[in-house]
Amino acid sequence: MMAYNKDNIYEEGVAMSEPFDFEAFAEAEGVDFREYLSMVVAKLPKADANYRAIQERINAIYEQYPRVMKLYDREDVSALTEDECAAVIEIASLRNQRTEIEMEAAYFRGCYDSVGYLRKAGIL
After folding, report:
1. Using an 8 Å Cβ cutoff, are 68 and 80 in contact?
2. Hey, is 76 helix, strand or coil?
3. Which of 44, 48, 68, 123 has its CA 20 to 30 A from that of 10?
4. 112-115 contacts: CB < 8 A, separation 24 or more?
5. Cβ atoms within 10 Å, residue 6
């Protein structure tokens, strides 16, 4: 989870007193919302240990049950063993958790951009 610690330092190690680097979605030229959101999500593997752990677990399940990956990669009906079905259920749950982290990151990035916009406008 991205947050400030007790010393008011962002989890990634950026102190709040450092120069404010502001580039809001509204100012990113030639970038549509999906691309902007993708840029936010792309930072998660480095910034969020829980996100990284979820992705590593998904990859480990795919290695253990290669037919499960095929189930997600194509639309063919496939007969799975009981263990493979359990793996599918776990992957679905992990993907949901990963999506929640992505949505949280996008929300907090929006908050960050809002504060930056208000500072730039001289309101804060």
Report:
1. yes
2. coil
3. 123
4. 113/22, 113/24, 113/25, 113/26, 114/24
5. 5
